[in-house]
Amino acid sequence: MSRIVYLNGAWLPEADAKVSIFDRGFLFADAIYEVTGVVGGKLLEYEGHAARLQRSMTELGITCPLSPDDLLEVHREIVRRNALNEGLIYLQISRGTADRDFAYPKDPTPTLTLFTQAKPVLDNPKVATGISVALLPDQRWARRDIKTVQLLYPSMAKMEAASRGADDAWLVEDGFVTEASSATAHIISKDGRLITRPLSHAILHGITRASVLDIAEEAGIAFEERAFTPDEAMDAAEAFITSATNFVLPVVSIDGQPVGDGKPGPLTLKLRALYIARKTASAI
Ligand code: PDD
Fold first, then answer.
1. What is the pTM of this model?
2. pLDDT tens, N- to C-terminus, the chain (284 residues)
3. At a CB cut-off of 8 Å and minimum separation 6, what does 274 contact?
4. Residue 165: helix, strand or coil by DSSP?
5. Best CATH choice for the domain 126-281 from the list 3.30.420.240, 3.30.499.10, 3.40.30.10, 3.20.10.10
6. Is the CB of 169 under 6 A from ligand 1?
7. Helices then strands (H, E): number in the chain?
8. Three-point CA angle 245, 250, 252, nearest 5°
9. Which of 161, 202, 207, 278 is the most exposed place for a label (fewest CB within 10 A)?
10. Pairing of the two strands 194-196 and 223-225
11. What residues are paired with 242 via a beta bridge?
């Protein structure tokens, strides 16, 4: 079934939405993106995604062509036009189209696109089994806090993980885990503490991560924001990833070594249930 997508103010069948070969998103990966989860036709954590989008735009000097209210309306409209019940909205803003030049063009008109992807995010079969991850070197650029579309290395890492029989990659830099290829990495120590890397330029500032820390605090689960090593992760009681569409997803093996008893951990599943209850209740 053909989707209706958004391109610079127009609603178009997906086959008719065309962007110039001179678009800087295409030539330089000069573009940023957001992925917002949708459950029951409503947007999850919209405020957080909109705030991070603004932060990425500010970092790169890109101006959103829509006001905050209009941007929210476009999100709601794309859900309506595609009768999207469960899945995600992908949004991308590139700096725009200009003749190829490394220097930014003057007064460019940004290219704003949105499309939907329908998928069952609540009944993810991986929740029951957990996922396996392979450890790979983090070879991404040094400003991972800006959510750019430079996703070639994460794609390569995912392919390499798959070739090793794993579901995903956890990336390692200077002896510490940074994050997963497209999600935040967390562990639970044997004394029941949630350990997650602090915010910096080394990782994307996950919207789900922030909410899970709030929920952990309210649920009386102690947490520490500090980097952890692959050895500490392999020796942890539980491990999990967080992201807009995976919510909280158990990791049950790292480089072939079981984490804990090799099954999804109880605190991980508790955090997932609390997260889904809380965020579907406040979806807009
Ligand atoms: N990825 N770290 C990286 C590198 C990511 O790409 C993502 C999200 C996250 C989690 O962020 P959040 O909780 O705000 O979704 C962490 C999205 C889902 C993607 O690229 O599809």
1. 0.97
2. 799 999 999 999 999 999 999 999 999 999 999 999 999 999 999 999 999 999 999 999 999 999 999 999 999 999 999 999 999 999 999 999 999 999 999 989 999 999 999 999 999 999 999 999 999 999 999 999 999 999 999 999 999 999 999 999 999 999 999 999 999 999 999 999 999 999 999 999 999 999 999 999 999 999 999 999 999 999 999 999 999 999 999 999 999 999 999 999 999 999 999 999 999 999 99
3. 215, 219
4. coil
5. 3.20.10.10
6. no
7. 8, 15
8. 140
9. 278
10. parallel
11. 184, 248
- C-alpha 230/C-alpha 163 separation (Å) is 20
Residue 217's CB is within 10 A of a number of other CB atoms, namely: 12
Please tell me the distance from the alpha carbon of residue 206 to that of residue 198, in angstroms, as a whole number.
Answer: 11
**What does the DSSP 8-state code read for residue 97?**
B
What tokens were used for 121? 């995010």
SS3 171: strand
CATH architecture of 4-118: 2-Layer Sandwich (3.30)
* 35 close to ligand 1 (CB < 6 Angstrom): yes
Judged by DSSP in three states, 27 sits in helix
Asked if 147 is an active-site residue, the reply is: yes
Q: Active-site residue among 42, 119, 147, 279?
A: 147
> How much distance in Å is there from the Cα of 95 to the middle of ligand 1?
21
182 lines ligand 1 (CB under 6 A): yes
Q: What are the residue ranges spanned by the domains of the chain?
A: 4-118, 126-281
Identify residue 49 by its one-letter amino acid code: H
> One-letter amino acid identity for 191?
D
User: Alpha-carbon distance 185 to 208, whole Å?
Assistant: 11
